[in-house]
Amino acid sequence: MSSASPAALGSIEVELPTAFHPGWNRLPGVRVEGRTLAIESAEYFFRLESHSWLVVEWEKVRDGLLSTHETTSSAVEQLALDFIREHAVPTSDPALVLRTAYEVYGHLFRSDLLASAGLPGVTTDHLRMLHEAATLMALNKVELDGHISNIGPCWFFPAATSVVFGLDDDEGRMLDELYHGAWFNEHRRIESIKAHAALGGRLVHGCQAKADQTGGVVAPYGAAMAAFRRDLETFKKEWIARVYAYRVEPVR
Questions:
Q1: Out of the domains of life, which is the source (predicted)?
Q2: What residue ranges do the domains of the chain occupy?
Protein backbone atom coordinates (compact mmCIF):
# COMPACT_ATOMS: atom_id res chain seq x y z
CA MET A 1 0.00 0.00 0.00
CA SER A 2 1.37 3.39 -0.93
CA SER A 3 1.28 6.06 1.73
CA ALA A 4 0.35 9.66 1.15
CA SER A 5 -0.95 12.66 3.02
CA PRO A 6 -4.11 14.28 1.64
CA ALA A 7 -1.95 17.09 0.30
CA ALA A 8 0.16 14.62 -1.67
CA LEU A 9 -2.78 13.75 -3.90
CA GLY A 10 -3.35 17.43 -4.59
CA SER A 11 -6.23 18.62 -6.73
CA ILE A 12 -8.63 16.27 -8.50
CA GLU A 13 -10.60 17.60 -11.42
CA VAL A 14 -12.95 15.72 -13.69
CA GLU A 15 -15.55 16.68 -16.27
CA LEU A 16 -18.64 14.51 -16.02
CA PRO A 17 -21.49 13.98 -18.49
CA THR A 18 -23.91 15.98 -16.33
CA ALA A 19 -23.58 18.77 -13.80
CA PHE A 20 -23.62 17.84 -10.12
CA HIS A 21 -25.89 19.68 -7.72
CA PRO A 22 -24.36 23.03 -6.62
CA GLY A 23 -24.95 22.01 -3.01
CA TRP A 24 -21.74 19.97 -3.20
CA ASN A 25 -19.93 23.27 -2.77
CA ARG A 26 -21.02 23.21 0.88
CA LEU A 27 -18.60 20.41 1.67
CA PRO A 28 -14.98 21.41 2.33
CA GLY A 29 -12.67 20.86 -0.60
CA VAL A 30 -15.43 20.32 -3.19
CA ARG A 31 -16.13 22.69 -6.05
CA VAL A 32 -18.80 22.22 -8.69
CA GLU A 33 -18.92 24.46 -11.76
CA GLY A 34 -21.21 23.14 -14.46
CA ARG A 35 -20.03 19.67 -15.44
CA THR A 36 -16.66 20.15 -13.75
CA LEU A 37 -16.16 18.54 -10.34
CA ALA A 38 -13.00 19.52 -8.45
CA ILE A 39 -11.74 18.18 -5.12
CA GLU A 40 -8.89 19.54 -3.01
CA SER A 41 -7.71 16.41 -1.27
CA ALA A 42 -6.13 18.20 1.71
CA GLU A 43 -9.53 19.68 2.58
CA TYR A 44 -11.83 16.87 1.51
CA PHE A 45 -10.42 13.64 2.92
CA PHE A 46 -10.51 12.68 6.60
CA ARG A 47 -7.95 9.96 5.93
CA LEU A 48 -5.90 9.38 2.79
CA GLU A 49 -3.22 6.73 2.91
CA SER A 50 -3.49 5.26 -0.58
CA HIS A 51 -3.81 6.85 -3.99
CA SER A 52 -4.17 3.74 -6.08
CA TRP A 53 -7.45 2.12 -7.11
CA LEU A 54 -8.50 -0.87 -9.18
CA VAL A 55 -10.82 -0.28 -12.13
CA VAL A 56 -12.22 -2.05 -15.18
CA GLU A 57 -13.41 -0.10 -18.20
CA TRP A 58 -17.15 0.33 -17.82
CA GLU A 59 -17.73 -0.64 -21.44
CA LYS A 60 -16.08 -4.02 -20.77
CA VAL A 61 -18.29 -4.63 -17.77
CA ARG A 62 -21.40 -3.46 -19.60
CA ASP A 63 -20.76 -5.59 -22.68
CA GLY A 64 -18.99 -8.58 -21.15
CA LEU A 65 -20.41 -9.14 -17.67
CA LEU A 66 -23.85 -7.57 -17.15
CA SER A 67 -25.58 -10.06 -19.44
CA THR A 68 -23.94 -13.18 -17.96
CA HIS A 69 -25.86 -15.50 -15.65
CA GLU A 70 -24.75 -17.51 -12.66
CA THR A 71 -25.02 -21.28 -12.72
CA THR A 72 -24.98 -24.09 -10.19
CA SER A 73 -21.19 -24.22 -10.53
CA SER A 74 -20.39 -20.51 -10.85
CA ALA A 75 -22.10 -17.98 -8.56
CA VAL A 76 -22.41 -14.35 -9.59
CA GLU A 77 -19.70 -13.38 -7.09
CA GLN A 78 -17.31 -15.82 -8.77
CA LEU A 79 -18.19 -14.44 -12.18
CA ALA A 80 -17.39 -10.92 -10.96
CA LEU A 81 -14.16 -12.01 -9.27
CA ASP A 82 -12.95 -13.82 -12.39
CA PHE A 83 -13.81 -10.80 -14.52
CA ILE A 84 -11.87 -8.50 -12.20
CA ARG A 85 -8.84 -10.80 -12.28
CA GLU A 86 -8.87 -10.81 -16.05
CA HIS A 87 -9.59 -7.16 -16.80
CA ALA A 88 -8.86 -4.90 -13.83
CA VAL A 89 -5.91 -2.53 -13.86
CA PRO A 90 -4.52 -0.35 -11.08
CA THR A 91 -4.74 3.40 -11.51
CA SER A 92 -3.44 6.39 -9.59
CA ASP A 93 -5.84 8.69 -11.46
CA PRO A 94 -8.79 9.58 -9.19
CA ALA A 95 -10.55 11.31 -12.10
CA LEU A 96 -10.71 7.94 -13.88
CA VAL A 97 -12.20 6.39 -10.75
CA LEU A 98 -14.85 9.10 -10.62
CA ARG A 99 -15.70 8.75 -14.32
CA THR A 100 -16.01 4.99 -13.93
CA ALA A 101 -18.14 5.33 -10.80
CA TYR A 102 -20.41 7.82 -12.57
CA GLU A 103 -21.21 5.14 -15.15
CA VAL A 104 -21.64 2.38 -12.55
CA TYR A 105 -24.12 4.35 -10.47
CA GLY A 106 -25.88 5.88 -13.42
CA HIS A 107 -26.68 2.30 -14.37
CA LEU A 108 -27.67 1.12 -10.89
CA PHE A 109 -29.82 4.17 -10.09
CA ARG A 110 -31.46 4.62 -13.48
CA SER A 111 -34.92 6.13 -13.55
CA ASP A 112 -36.60 3.42 -15.62
CA LEU A 113 -36.43 1.15 -12.55
CA LEU A 114 -38.78 3.36 -10.56
CA ALA A 115 -41.86 1.81 -12.14
CA SER A 116 -40.94 -1.68 -10.90
CA ALA A 117 -39.12 -0.89 -7.66
CA GLY A 118 -42.24 -0.79 -5.45
CA LEU A 119 -40.97 2.28 -3.59
CA PRO A 120 -43.71 4.90 -3.33
CA GLY A 121 -42.42 8.39 -2.80
CA VAL A 122 -39.06 7.75 -4.44
CA THR A 123 -38.42 10.20 -7.26
CA THR A 124 -35.83 10.90 -9.90
CA ASP A 125 -34.48 13.58 -7.56
CA HIS A 126 -33.69 10.87 -5.00
CA LEU A 127 -31.97 8.82 -7.67
CA ARG A 128 -29.84 11.82 -8.55
CA MET A 129 -28.79 12.12 -4.91
CA LEU A 130 -27.86 8.46 -4.79
CA HIS A 131 -26.00 8.67 -8.09
CA GLU A 132 -23.92 11.70 -7.20
CA ALA A 133 -23.05 10.69 -3.64
CA ALA A 134 -22.13 7.14 -4.62
CA THR A 135 -19.88 8.47 -7.39
CA LEU A 136 -17.82 10.38 -4.82
CA MET A 137 -17.84 7.40 -2.45
CA ALA A 138 -15.80 5.46 -5.02
CA LEU A 139 -12.69 7.33 -3.84
CA ASN A 140 -13.01 5.60 -0.45
CA LYS A 141 -10.85 2.51 -0.06
CA VAL A 142 -10.50 -0.56 2.14
CA GLU A 143 -7.37 -2.71 2.14
CA LEU A 144 -7.33 -6.51 2.17
CA ASP A 145 -6.51 -6.51 5.89
CA GLY A 146 -9.74 -4.55 6.52
CA HIS A 147 -8.05 -1.23 7.26
CA ILE A 148 -9.90 1.76 5.81
CA SER A 149 -7.17 3.67 4.00
CA ASN A 150 -9.19 6.41 2.28
CA ILE A 151 -12.26 8.07 3.69
CA GLY A 152 -14.08 11.31 2.92
CA PRO A 153 -17.41 12.88 3.90
CA CYS A 154 -19.40 10.78 1.42
CA TRP A 155 -18.66 7.66 3.42
CA PHE A 156 -21.31 8.97 5.83
CA PHE A 157 -24.01 8.88 3.23
CA PRO A 158 -27.04 10.48 4.96
CA ALA A 159 -24.92 13.15 6.64
CA ALA A 160 -23.32 14.18 3.35
CA THR A 161 -26.56 14.14 1.38
CA SER A 162 -28.33 16.12 4.12
CA VAL A 163 -25.67 18.82 3.80
CA VAL A 164 -25.57 18.85 0.01
CA PHE A 165 -29.27 18.56 -0.78
CA GLY A 166 -30.72 20.25 2.29
CA LEU A 167 -32.63 17.20 3.49
CA ASP A 168 -34.51 17.06 6.76
CA ASP A 169 -33.92 14.12 9.10
CA ASP A 170 -36.80 12.01 7.78
CA GLU A 171 -35.80 12.36 4.15
CA GLY A 172 -32.17 11.75 5.02
CA ARG A 173 -33.12 8.49 6.74
CA MET A 174 -35.30 7.48 3.80
CA LEU A 175 -32.43 8.02 1.38
CA ASP A 176 -30.11 6.07 3.66
CA GLU A 177 -32.57 3.16 3.66
CA LEU A 178 -32.60 3.24 -0.15
CA TYR A 179 -28.82 3.10 -0.26
CA HIS A 180 -28.60 0.49 2.49
CA GLY A 181 -30.84 -2.01 0.84
CA ALA A 182 -34.48 -1.22 0.11
CA TRP A 183 -33.59 -0.44 -3.49
CA PHE A 184 -31.86 -3.77 -3.94
CA ASN A 185 -34.02 -6.87 -4.15
CA GLU A 186 -32.30 -10.10 -5.22
CA HIS A 187 -32.34 -9.16 -8.88
CA ARG A 188 -30.84 -5.78 -8.04
CA ARG A 189 -28.24 -7.36 -5.75
CA ILE A 190 -27.02 -9.52 -8.61
CA GLU A 191 -26.93 -6.50 -10.89
CA SER A 192 -24.99 -4.54 -8.26
CA ILE A 193 -22.35 -7.25 -7.90
CA LYS A 194 -21.76 -7.27 -11.63
CA ALA A 195 -21.68 -3.49 -12.01
CA HIS A 196 -19.26 -3.00 -9.12
CA ALA A 197 -16.69 -5.15 -10.90
CA ALA A 198 -15.86 -1.91 -12.73
CA LEU A 199 -14.60 -0.55 -9.39
CA GLY A 200 -12.62 -3.65 -8.54
CA GLY A 201 -14.79 -5.28 -5.89
CA ARG A 202 -18.20 -5.46 -4.24
CA LEU A 203 -20.21 -2.89 -2.33
CA VAL A 204 -19.92 -3.45 1.42
CA HIS A 205 -22.09 -1.49 3.85
CA GLY A 206 -20.78 -0.24 7.15
CA CYS A 207 -24.33 -0.59 8.46
CA GLN A 208 -25.54 -3.81 10.01
CA ALA A 209 -29.22 -4.75 10.50
CA LYS A 210 -30.43 -1.26 9.63
CA ALA A 211 -29.14 1.91 8.06
CA ASP A 212 -27.18 3.76 10.76
CA GLN A 213 -25.24 6.42 8.89
CA THR A 214 -22.09 4.41 8.30
CA GLY A 215 -22.26 4.25 4.54
CA GLY A 216 -20.11 1.85 2.60
CA VAL A 217 -17.28 1.21 0.22
CA VAL A 218 -16.45 -0.92 -2.79
CA ALA A 219 -14.20 -3.43 -1.04
CA PRO A 220 -11.89 -5.96 -2.69
CA TYR A 221 -12.98 -9.58 -2.52
CA GLY A 222 -11.28 -11.18 0.46
CA ALA A 223 -11.09 -8.03 2.61
CA ALA A 224 -11.23 -8.76 6.35
CA MET A 225 -14.66 -7.55 7.38
CA ALA A 226 -14.17 -7.92 11.15
CA ALA A 227 -11.19 -5.58 11.01
CA PHE A 228 -13.18 -3.26 8.75
CA ARG A 229 -15.95 -2.97 11.33
CA ARG A 230 -13.48 -2.34 14.17
CA ASP A 231 -11.72 0.41 12.23
CA LEU A 232 -15.00 2.08 11.31
CA GLU A 233 -16.14 2.16 14.93
CA THR A 234 -13.04 4.11 16.01
CA PHE A 235 -13.90 7.25 14.09
CA LYS A 236 -17.44 7.24 12.72
CA LYS A 237 -19.17 9.31 15.43
CA GLU A 238 -16.57 12.08 15.35
CA TRP A 239 -16.46 12.33 11.58
CA ILE A 240 -20.24 12.13 11.14
CA ALA A 241 -20.50 15.12 13.47
CA ARG A 242 -17.92 16.99 11.41
CA VAL A 243 -19.95 16.46 8.25
CA TYR A 244 -23.19 17.60 9.90
CA ALA A 245 -21.44 20.79 11.00
CA TYR A 246 -21.79 22.02 7.41
CA ARG A 247 -25.54 21.52 7.33
CA VAL A 248 -27.80 24.46 6.52
CA GLU A 249 -31.55 24.92 6.40
CA PRO A 250 -33.26 23.05 3.53
CA VAL A 251 -32.98 25.12 0.37
CA ARG A 252 -33.99 22.75 -2.43
A1: Bacteria
A2: 46-244
